[in-house]
Amino acid sequence: xxxxxxxxxxxxxxxGTRLLPATKSQPKEMLSVxxxxxxxxxxxxxxxxxxxxxxxxxSRGKHSIESHFDIDESLTHYLRSxxxxxxxxxxxxxxxxxxxFYTRQRRQLGLGHAVLCAESLIxxxxxxxxxxxxxxxxxxxxxxxxxxxxxxxxxQVDAVVAFEEVPEEEVYRYGxxxxxxxxxxVFELADVIEKPPIxxxxxxxxxxxxxxxxxxxxxxxxxTPPGKGGEIQLTDAIRLLIRRGHRCLGVRLGPHExxxxxxxxxxxxxxxxxxxxxxxxxxxxxREYLATKLSSGDSRASRSxxxxx
Length: 309
Ligand code: G1P
What we know:
There is one protein chain. By secondary structure, the chain is of the alpha/beta class. The chain has a single domain (2-279), classed as Alpha-Beta Complex (Spore Coat Polysaccharide Biosynthesis Protein SpsA, Chain A), CATH 3.90.550.10. Helices cover 31% and strands 21% of the residues. The chain is built from eleven helices and 13 strands. Strands 5-4-1-6-11-8-12-10-9 form a nine-stranded mixed sheet. Helix 7 packs across helix 8 (234-243). The longest helix is centred in the C-terminal third of the chain and has 13 residues, at 265-277. Bound molecules: 1-O-phosphono-alpha-D-glucopyranose (G1P). The site of 1-O-phosphono-alpha-D-glucopyranose (G1P) has 14 residues, from strand 11 and helix 8.
């Protein structure tokens, strides 16, 4: 039954302004975290949870995402003819039996609007939404989407949303849950509020970049006026689903599956370090390097370039 949910919408249309200048001419979803670009982890996580059709909602300047998932026969041939077959394993992801689709968000009207851009391709099937700038679990080792799909099918609801607990001072950055009763691993949503000030936040449970929806979400998105930042918010459409009496569930990410947000430099740097430390080949040496560097009080590690001499 859960196999019937095999399509994911992956919004990747945002400008990535918080990562300038790195994102001036390349999408933030193509920044490397350890060995792979962010979006490859997202696709691998989804494939692991039975998603076979990836529908990217792109925008201007995002072509390298499409190229990344192409089968590059000339590169394969080059590696073979130069005796470097061992590198072919790094390109194995190209040959996974996954179909890729791309549509453009032609105007930047927000995340809700980006999902709406997929409507005529999704039509009447349930689907996953996975934000293309967030990785779940170190090296994307997470089956959160599989668990959400199972719950969605078993409980016959209209939405299942992933949540993670965040510190108080960060709630203003996220969609925040108001659970109906209790904040267990799975809970029913009484409401969800996009980026509230802490004084108005009903919990510290933040929307964590993964969703499963019935196609009913499209009608809600059509009825959703611009919200925070003047944009059509996906969170507001979920809110409308709940207000119209449709059941929506929340699922917490497990302790083994933190969300890594590649939307700003602070968390991008931390994510890179975590993934590099977990690298099977270079992780141990990097750990030793960092330990030595930090314990020696190396000025290059402990001072920012803007510190005065
Ligand atoms: C979006 C959503 C927000 C969610 C966040 C992380 O915000 O609007 O509800 O909590 O992703 O999944 P953004 O980070 O695009 O501003």
